[in-house]
Amino acid sequence: MRRICGIVLGGLLLAGGLAGTVAAGDPKEGRKIANMCRTCHGLDGYARVPIAPHIGGEPKEYLEAQLMAFKTGQRENEMMSVVSSGLSAQQISDVAAWYASHTPVATLPDGVSAEAAPQACVSCHGADGISQLLDAPNLAGETNIYLDTQLKAFKRGQRQHEIMSEVAAALSDSEIRDLANWYAVIQLEIEIAEH
Amino acid sequence: MKTKVVGALALSTLLTTPALAQDNMEKLTNMQRTDATFTFIEQEGESADSLRNIIPHINVPEGFEVSLYAVVPDARSMALAPQGTVLFAGTRKDKVWSIVDRNRNRVADEVKDFAPSVTFDIPNGPCFSPDGFLYIAERNRVLVFPAAEFFFESPDIAVGTVVGQGDLIPVDEESFNHSARVCDIGPDGKLYISLGQPFNVQPVDKIDLYDEIGIGGIIRINTDGSGREVFTRGVRNSVGQDFNPATGELWWTDNQVDGMGDDIPPGELNRQTAAGQHFGFPWTNSRVVIVTEAEFPRPEGVEFIEPQLELTAHAADLGMRFYSDDSFPEEYHGGIFWAQHGSWNRTTPVGARVMFTALDPETGDAVGAQVFADGWLDEDTGEYRGRPMDIEFLPDGSMLVSDDFAGAIWRIAYNPEQAG
What we know:
The complex is a heterodimer.
Chain A: H1 2-19, H2 27-33, H3 38-41, H4 60-72, H5 80-85, H6 89-100, E1 103-107, H7 119-125, H8 144-156, H9 164-169, H10 173-184, E2 187-191
Antiparallel strand pairs in A: 1-2
Chain B: H1 2-15, H2 24-29, H3 46-52, E1 64-71, E2 78-80, E3 86-89, E4 97-100, E5 110-113, E6 125-128, E7 134-137, E8 142-145, H4 148-151, E9 160-163, E10 183-185, E11 191-195, H5 207-213, E12 217-221, E13 229-233, E14 241-243, E15 250-254, E16 267-272, E17 277-278, E18 284-285, E19 288-289, E20 309-311, E21 317-322, E22 336-340, E23 353-357, E24 370-373, E25 377-378, E26 383-384, E27 388-393, E28 399-403, E29 408-414, H6 416-419
Parallel strand pairs in B: 13-17
Antiparallel strand pairs in B: 1-29, 2-3, 3-4, 4-5, 6-7, 7-8, 8-9, 10-11, 11-12, 12-13, 14-15, 15-16, 16-20, 18-19, 21-22, 22-23, 23-24, 25-26, 27-28, 28-29
């Protein structure tokens, strides 16, 4: 496991490098920018449409790195590539700070034990889908099709990440759906922060 | 080498998880039982009450009344079975819902998932053949369920594959956005399926591939999956289509490019008069130029067909239906109703309403868009109460409107005495 953590740190440093000189984000400023996000992600970061992930209470570093990846074209999405192109590094930091300031609360379904969680995922994403690392997203309560799509994107090289590309490459499509289902049925609530 | 550890770990863990739903297709094809069970959606109680609280906000023309037909999570494109007993609604998740009004009081009494034994993947688009075969167009597969309106009561149901997994589009072109398919059986008995292209504007190196496959287009196939042709070219992402029952022509809506400004380019309602017509994308959206011919060489010998109507930019025109019943006033007969889902990134949100256009009796062209029903968008806060996605009609000629935001199907009926 120690080896894995080493790699994760490497990934984090890369992500930090990408985000460049970004300063501390201001969640109050970010709240204003979030008006651009809320039709899909909600003001609290609880997604309103299946194609968007929940982002409330996500690590700020992860949100920033993804927005920068969309902005630079390293990651592509029909909607996010458009949205991120208009944001400055400071605005990205601010909006990431807004969404990161909320608190995610994940609850496993009745009768489901955390020990049954997919071991390939838990060290970074938690058994309940709450991120254990700055470079990993929360997965709790995401639509299974969203998670399925992301895993397949890693598998096919449309999305790249030092760890995820390797993990996903070893998975069959039905294994991917089973992993997606594990995290999709977890109940997620987001406690909105006061600013 | 370090990352190999993770890969090996993943593999060994996964081998211990049970192989699930994917295997069911084989069992079902062989008429074997599975252990699948239904999910039922509560039709009364708190969520139905809060949905009913939206109704006073909805504005409809005089003489019409709005009611809650069913509580249906994520309800998208709809198809009413030929006998009129069961409505099917797709989702952008993994469920298709069956919606039954047994006592015909125009309020659904049972909503449950259809074919829970099948692992669906964005089963957005259900459509029926006149003889009762239910087709479901998914992200990358098309299934058929014979006599679905009689067999839907069983979780294990006869199913066939029209287009196999991964054969609708190349798997490398799969995405989540722009993957909500719609389908229809045409007057020629063929199956017409829209294939949105996954980008805002596709890169130039995808143009030839997409044009050949029909991504950013509408394809047609025989109902056994053979004879695939690209029927419509130059589409960005169409999520609504219907054949004009009077002429047999296909009409469809399209969603246009983001990031050019709040008021361009316009949304589109299109009329197709011949197979293979090209509607301009990505070179043009209506008369707005999207990419330059210097960067994107224009296909030779191709005329771009202009839309029938230019619609409010970014309002997201989706599901549409011709009105061929007679319980609505005569001005609506033979016209088109369609759902505007509402904008996602316009400075001031717009849409979330039901639109209508009549057709010119001489030319058959659309005469102009008018708002038929609105109020799902709270103009003061810019927040959605609901987002209309598709239109269907009950046997009594009343309208159903699916709403994937509120998780509802609304009914709009003409009832001048009741509505006052």
